[in-house]
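Morning. Coffee machine broken again, so started the prediction first thing and wrote up yesterday's gels while waiting. Chain of 232 residues, entered below exactly as on the submission form.
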Amino acid sequence: MKILYEDNHIIIVNKASGEIVQGDKTGDEPLSETIKNYIKVRDNKPGQVFLGVVHRLDRPVSGVVVFAKTSKALTRLNAMFASGDVHKTYWAVSRNKPPKDSDTLVHYISSVERNNKSYASTTPKDGAKEARLKYSLIASSERYNLLEVNLMTGRKHQIRVQLSSIGCPVKGDLKYGDKRSNPDGSISLHARRITFVHPVSKKEIDVTAPVPEGDNLWKALEDAATHKTANE
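Came back before lunch.
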């Protein structure tokens, strides 16, 4: 667990792939409990530590996660996420190059609990929710491409299913059409950046999560994206 930002009301961490944000049927310790225990020991707090889960990332995804340390922050952050006042940017690695260097994708997504999978259609369907995102191709290597994705809605597995729908499944994501899994069970999707107005202090919060450590492909694509931006 790496803390990216913390004050009296919120804590933002860089989640590793494989960690769960909130408890589930696996019984594995969730990130929320890890953070609570850490704060309790660090600050020598008696009794229970309050920590509110504001949003989630899929288990195989890495990157920025925001938690609330007070009930006031939790209530306000929940409202901000629901109203779209929190802006999230993701990085996704795909073996395939997208049909356009940048585009806005609009699909209608249905989720099936039985197999924990979402399905995207280009036309409205009963029970399906509209899903919108913008992507840009920001770097490429000989075999892989790095896409920057800005979510405009928040649907289950949205990035994974929408990118798969244009022939660009996320690297390692067997569920949505990639050819091979990643050795560590992750998928190459990273919640890169989050920006919002602090729910209490009202100051601008802008946090970027470093790419996964020890992954040479992530590092190479990050360097390529940085180089490209510097030369634009």
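The two ends are 34 Å apart (CA to CA). Going to sketch it on the whiteboard this afternoon.
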